[in-house]
Amino acid sequence: MQKALAPDIWTWPEEPLQLIGSRCESCGAVTFPRQRRCPRCSKPQMVDLLLPSHGVISAWTTQGFPPKLPYAGGQTADTFVPFGMALVALGDVVQVEGRLTENDPAKLRIGLEVELRAVPFYTDENGDEVLTYAFEPINAGNTDDGSGR
Amino acid sequence: MSNEVAIVGVGLHPFGRFGDKPALEMGADAIMLALDDAGLEWGDIEIAFGGSSGVSSPDSVTGMIGLTGIPFTRVSNACATSASAVRQAATAIRVGDAEIALAVGMDKHERGAFTGAPSSMAMPDWYGENGQFVTTKFFGMKASRYCETNNISHETLARVAAKAYRNGALNPNAFRRNPMEIEDILNSTMLNYPLTQYMFCSPDEGAAAVVLARADIAERYTDKPVYLRASEVHTRRYGAYEVHASWAAMEENDAPTVYAARAAFAKAGITPKDVDVIQLQDTDAGAEIIHMAECGFCEDGEQEKLLADGATEITGPLPINTDGGLIANGEPIGASGMRQVHEIVRQLRGEAGERQVGGNPQIGFAQVYGAPGVAAASIFSR
After folding, report:
1. Which residue of A59, A103, A136, B19 has the fewest CB atoms within a 10 Å radius of its CB?
2. What is the pLDDT of residue B112?
């Protein structure tokens, strides 16, 4: 069976798939994941907010070596497949850090449109497939942030 | 001048790999070197601060060099550990707790990128399980964005590393002392795009120590006191995207280095144009380039031409990381910022040998930056 890496940070398996953040009722600041106090105004008036599932890349890189523990991916240097990482602006709400489904630098750039996905991450000791959230580039051919690339 | 502080002694245990030698032994060596440099004895030190990430009780060093009963406090503040320890020692002098104080930094790290429990940085467990609790990934993100938006080429990144290895070759205390070609740096393994293996510093081992005195008595111990004109530590503000962050606000704010540098220059009454020798946190080649602008030494994007012109070389108008920086020295977290102080003091005294910058330097600047978003900027003058 499938299960979520962190069930409390997103709506999976419910549709539509969305990350769950929190919004400060006092000043409007938005965080991901949820937290109890506002990092801008310090007030404890945070309420849950479902975040947009569509966004654009505002910064990106690739992870070219297997992270040390507590990384759960389990690969060794021989089996590790580099993955893309990005900071994604979800609408005009908040920027969220997460994996990309694309790891080729030639296909990544600032301004690229992406959509939230649930992707297979690893198989745990019970044989269950653990899913994580990742952003998939969409409309790669017809976006332009003016960078000329 | 009664609350001014001067550095009267510096000592450095080489950075690198030293087998079974414990960090505390390296710290003891660095302390003795700094005391010798100041012509002081351990018994003259009235208060001490020990910077370390891995040594839980740096004051244990007193068992090796003298159980004198002084207050000796551990300081642990990520890559700003050393700068924070020096600042604490200076503050102790300024408030009148001591006339002579010592700061020492020491660490002995295992190989490979730093890691730990995400909860130690107020991050959820899944952040580490998902492969995001990796400092180098943040540096890749920041460098790729900076290069893409400011037209900095990957060759310019490689120039930073090549300079570091070249300067390291002139520094007998450095970890990496073999010059490397730009092509070889560019073609080494891509760790976090656009940063390759030889564009990163490595965690390693080492120690450094600084003896500080109230400025009005400094000339008893040295004929070349170096005054600590400012030492500012800032943490991240709302809107800054920093190391180990699962999110960032839409409204963007400057990085903590910008605030620390600005505050240090204001406090010292000095401008970036006045600085003769510079130390910047070059965790990676991109960080040095970005910190040049964040500290006010150039505008965003100017680095491409400045580096092509050799401006940041020992012989250039903006000499940066004359001892090879973190890239050539590696980073024992607790000692790294004190290595910077050691090099600035050697340069301002005219004692840097083959690495000596010309023109009788009068003013030095040092900056550090680390997780989860802490920066320090310090200004030194003759």
Report:
1. B19
2. 80
Instruction: Indicate the number of domains in chain A.
Output: 1
Give the residue-averaged pLDDT of B108-135. 90
Q: Which amino acid is at B251?
A: E
For chain B, what's the residue count?
382
Q: What's the complex ipTM?
A: 0.93
Contact A71 B124 (CB under 8 A): no
**Residues 135-164 in B contacting A (C-alpha not used; CB under 8 Å):** 137, 140-145, 148-149
Spatial separation of the C-alpha atoms in residues B191 and B196, rounded to whole Å? 5
Using alpha carbons, select from B308, B325, B321, B315 the residue that is nearest to residue B358.
B315
Interval A50-79 mean pLDDT: 94
Contacts of B223 (CB under 8 A, 6+ apart): none
Chain centre to alpha carbon of residue B278: 11
Q: A60 vs chain B: nearest CA distance in angstroms? A: 5
Pairing of the two strands B47-51 and B363-370: unpaired
B30 residue type, one letter: A
DSSP letter assigned to residue B53: S
CB B324 within 8 A of CB B167: yes
- Please say if the pLDDT value at position B57 is more than 50: yes
Give the CB-side neighbour count of residue B18, counting CA atoms within 13 A.
23
Is A99 in Cβ contact with B131 (below 8 Å)?
A: yes
**Cβ separation B129–A5 shorter than 8 A:** yes
Residue B86, H or E segment: helix B81-94
**Range 8-47 of B in CB contact (< 8 A) with A:** none
Q: Please tell me if residue B336 touches chain A, with a CB cutoff of 8 Å.
A: no
Q: What is the reported pLDDT for A149?
A: 39
Residue-number span of the structural domain to which A67 is assigned: 53-137
Q: What pLDDT, on the 0 to 100 scale, is given for residue A145? A: 47
Instruction: Give the pairing type, strands A129-137 and A2-4.
Output: parallel
CB A22 within 8 A of CB A3: no
Could you tell me the pLDDT band of residue A141, with boundaries at 50, 70 and 90?
low
Structure tokens given for B108: 């002995």
Task: Walk me through the domains of chain B, giving residue ranges and CATH numbers.
Answer: 5-111+200-381 (3.40.47.10)
**In this complex, do A85 and B190 lie within 8 Å of one another by their Cβ atoms?**
no
Statement: the pTM of the whole predicted model exceeds 0.90: yes
CB contact under 8 A, B248 and A95: yes
Question: Among residues of chain B, what percentage have pLDDT more than 70?
Answer: 99
Mean pLDDT over A75-86 rounds to 92
Q: What is residue A147's predicted lDDT score, i.e. its pLDDT?
A: 43
Chain A environment of B129 (Cβ under 8 Å): 5-6, 70-72
Residues 6+ apart with CB under 8 A from B95: none
pLDDT in tens, B153-195: 999 999 999 999 999 999 999 999 999 999 999 999 999 999 9
